[in-house]
Amino acid sequence: MRDIGRDVKRVQVSFTKGQWELIERFRETMGGTDADIVRNIVLAWLAEKSVISSDIKRRMETGKP
Predict the structure, then answer these.
(1) In the chain, alpha helices (H)
(2) What is the per-residue burial (b if ≥16 Cβ within 10 Å, else e) of 10-26?
(3) Phi/psi at 51 (nearest 5 deg)?
(4) Full-prediction pTM beyond 0.85?
(5) Contact at 8 Å (CB) between 30 and 47?
(6) Which of 20, 21, 24, 50 is 20 to 30 A distant from 31 in Cα terms?
(7) Are 54 and 62 in contact (CB under 8 A)?
């Protein structure tokens, strides 16, 4: 189990029944728990939109963490 400390931010989100039915289709593919599925969907979307790679490139260019 992960150590839940200062490096973890918890958020509560609400989904409609239809939204959750769509998200549920990704169980096992994107994770085994509700939190894993939602986290992985968000990270996959950020990667698809090049947000993650753009941020890494910017940090490398500026030398900022």
Answers:
(1) 17-24, 34-48, 51-62
(2) eeeeeeeeeeeeeeeee
(3) -65, -40
(4) no
(5) no
(6) 50
(7) no
Q: Which two tokens stand for residue 5?
A: 């400390």
- CA 50 to each of CA 1, 13, 20, 46, 54: distance values in angstroms, whole numbers, following the listed order: 30, 24, 25, 6, 6
d(CA 34, CA 28): 10
Residues 2/8, Cβ–Cβ less than 8 Å:
yes
The pair of three-digit structure tokens given for residue 29, joined into one six-digit string: 């593919």
Rounded to whole angstroms, the Cα distance separating 26 from 35 reads 12
